Amino acid sequence: xxxxxxxxxxxxxxxxxxxxxxxxxxxxxxxxxxxxxxxxxxxxxxxxxxxxxxxxxxxxxxxxxxxxxxxxxxxxxxxxxxxxxxxxxxxxxxxxxxxxx
Length: 101
Known about the structure:
- The structure is a single chain.
- The protein is mostly helical.
- The protein has 3 helices and no strands.
- It has helices at residues 2-19, 38-55, 66-100.
- Helix 1 (2-19) packs antiparallel against helix 2.
- The protein is elongated and about 80 Å long.
């Protein structure tokens, strides 16, 4: 049963996590969810078990890389800035063109 499997894993993981803390997992995760803080793992597990009791033993979630989110935000800001610069440049060119006419 899922609950027993989770409880067994929790004990082993807690023992390992209490011995060491690694904030940057680099490429060790191979795309898996990695927790550096035991309480965060427990919270995640509680959410999984709650979901299981409500909707069954299947679920999916999207793991978002915080660095990728920050890069996407910077691209959005940069693109917005470039769009404003383009519009101001076009306005000034139009204004000078009208003046020259």
